[in-house]
C-alpha cells in the first residue's frame, strides 16, 4: 500500500496476513528481553469505570503511541488521538505520538528496558515477530477491549462490531487475543471491468468458463493471468480460497494445523491441476516468473493480462499506472464444478495492520481505549477516506464515495457472507508459507518446472519438516 521498496511491500503482504519478515533477528532480540515485561509497579493507576469509560482509563495519565509510517501514513492515528484527548481533557498535551518505518530498531531498546509504548502499530519491514512476542509473554491480552461496549452502540461489544476473522487473527494459542488488526484486506482475483467488457465477457464463475475467457483473450494477444513471479506467495491469495471452495474450509484448517497428508487432499490436487492448466495452455503472461509485484501489476494495468491474484491494497499501490477508465474490481475465485463444497463467492479476507499493547506498557487501558475510538464509525470513515482501505469495523462505508476497487471489495465481502476463509499458515509459519510453499513449490509449478503431483508432494514434505522441527512453535485452530 504505497511502499516504494520490494522489502517493504513484501512485508506489507504479510501485514494483511503475514507476520514478521525478519523472524530470526526479532527472536534473538526479544528473547533477550523476556524478563523485562512484568514490572507492574510502573503502571499508572486505573481510573473509575463508567459507561463513558468502560475500560477504566486513568483520565489524566499520559499516552504513548508509536505508529508505523508506511502506506497508510500516520494522520489517521493522529486524528484518533485528538478524539482521545477530547474524551479525556486532562490528557491534553500528554498524548505522545511517534512514527517510524523502523519499528524494531526504534522499539527494541524500549522493550529491552521494560519501557515500551502503550500502543504500537507493529508493521513494516522491521516488524517485530508476533510469534516471539506472544511466546515471550510480551503482550497484553486485548479481551477486555473486545468485551467492552462499542463506541457507537453500547448494546454491542467491540467484538460484535468486527469483521469475520479479525478476532481469530489475533489469537495464537487458546482464547487470549494478542493483536488487533485494524485494516481489513480482501484477497482474490483482481481484474478490469473495462477490459472484460472489451472482450464481451463477464467474470467467469466456473473453471471451464475461466479457461474459455482465457482462450478468447489469447486469440486477441492478451494473456489470461499474470502474478508476481519473483514473489509467488501471492498465488495463494486466490488459490487457497479456491481449495476451500472445492473441498471445504476444513481442508485449509488441516493444512494450517500441519496435519499429516493434509496437502494430499483431493481438493488441493484438483486446484493445483486447474492452475497448472493455465500454464500448460499458454494463458500466463510471458515472462511472468521473472516479474516483481509492481511489474506484474503494471503489465496488468496496461491490459497485457486480464487477471491477477492480489489483495485490496493493490488499488492504492498501483494507482500511478492505473488508467482512469480501468474500473478495477475483485472477485472470489471461480469454482471448479458442481461438486464444490462451498458456493461461488467464497473468498479470503482478513485483518491487516497489527496493533499491539505491550504487557509492560504504563497505560495499557489507554492504549486499548484508543483502539476502541479507532474502531468507532467516525475514525473508521476517516481512515477509509484517507487511505482507500476498509477497516476491521464491520461497516463504516455508508455515505462514502468509494473508489472502484474498494467498492468492489465491499461488494465481494457482502456476497461472501459467512463464506469467508482465513488461512493462518502465512502468519503462523512464515518461512513455510513464503520461501518453501510459495517460492519452492507453487512458483516452480506455475513456471512449468514442477508438475501438480510433484508440487503436492513437495508441499507435504515442507509441512512435515516444519511439524517435526521442535524449534518452531506450533499453533492450531481452536
UniProtKB/TrEMBL annotation:
It is found in: Cell envelope. It comes from the Bacteria. Keywords: Signal, Transport. Belongs to the bacterial solute-binding protein 1 family. PROSITE patterns: TAT. This is Carbohydrate ABC transporter, N-acetylglucosamine/diacetylchitobiose-binding protein. Pfam families: SBP_bac_8 (PF13416).
